[in-house]
Specification:
alpha+beta, 4-stranded antiparallel β-sheet, 4 strands, disordered C terminus
Length: 103
């Protein structure tokens, strides 16, 4: 689970880089931060799957209107090191944040 501090950092960076973000599918919003990290596993083959190895850590936001999910690599956002240093919050309720709202 993400802490409020992590969510605020994500919102701040996305607002700075995207400005007012409109869903590319339904052209509406707002968006909610999905409460956790995604780790996309890099694979060297299309015909087999290897457990472990290199991953791309990501955060996701979902459109509250149509459900479109947008993934963002936390390293490319400049948040990788700071996210590693922040403790994760366990057993918290999901906090909805509007990406269009300035923190």
């Amino acid at each position: 689970m993400l802490t409020n501090e992590q969510k605020e950092s994500i919102i701040k960076v996305l607002n700075e880089r995207l400005g007012v973000f409109q869903c590319p599918m339904c052209h509406k919003g707002p968006f909610t931060i999905i409460d956790g990290f995604f780790n996309m596993s890099l694979q060297g083959s299309l015909t087999s799957y290897t457990l472990g190895g290199t991953t791309v850590p990501m955060v996701a936001i979902a459109c509250n209107n149509c459900g479109f999910v947008s993934l963002h690599a936390i390293g490319a956002l400049g948040l990788l090191e700071s996210m590693k240093e922040m403790p994760n919050k366990k057993n918290t309720s999901q906090l909805e944040e509007n990406i269009d709202k300035n923190p």
